[in-house]
Amino acid sequence: MKVAGLQWWKWLCVLLLTYTVWQGFMVEVPRMAILHETIRNLFFHVTMWFSMIILMIASIVYGIRYLRSGNLEYDIKASACIHSGIFLGVLGLLTGSLWAKYTWGAWWVNDAKLNGAAAAMLVYAAYLILRSSLEDEHKRARIAAVYSIFAFTLMLAFIIILPRMTDSLHPGNGGNPGFSNYDLDSKMRTVFYPAVIGWALLGAWISELEFRIRRIKLHRDQR
User: Fold this and answer.
1) Per residue in 136-158, pLDDT tens?
2) Cys-Cys link to 113, which of 17, 103, 128, 163 (CB 3.0-4.6 A)?
């Protein structure tokens, strides 16, 4: 279904992100020590990472579909999802660093989750290097599909499992209560969940554009 030449979900993406930015700065938030107004970054930093995880899961699905069918278009979709996921992941790191500066007093602190997030991005950076080092399209697609599963597993270990096993300044880790337990109130939820969907749709939109460009190139090279 298209509306005025644009798929409905793209209009939804624009509406949700406009709503996120507007309400992200205007909605009433809990007045908490240390966090104060910086808690608004929850609508950007955390939701970007949630959306990144969704895109990385999509890349695994497309990678598995390639392994089952041998259709290179699935490999292109998997790669495009990872590129978009890395984009959102880097934005998440930058917004997280900004948040750290105004709550913990430094752009970067020795925190298990912060270090794990950076390590996860390096793992996916290795994915890009791996793809660029292989010439054969099908060999590259097979190895990339398997590596994406490995990378996603490591990412979950770095940002979810390990921080819960050690001290961490992040809410929900190292014995600290999570946001949902003490300050993600009903008003914040009305922005938080639409933001996750909006950023995920933006990532899907970017992925679709990359896929269409690379598919044209693939068909041109196969002539």
Assistant:
1) 888 999 999 999 999 999 998 88
2) 163
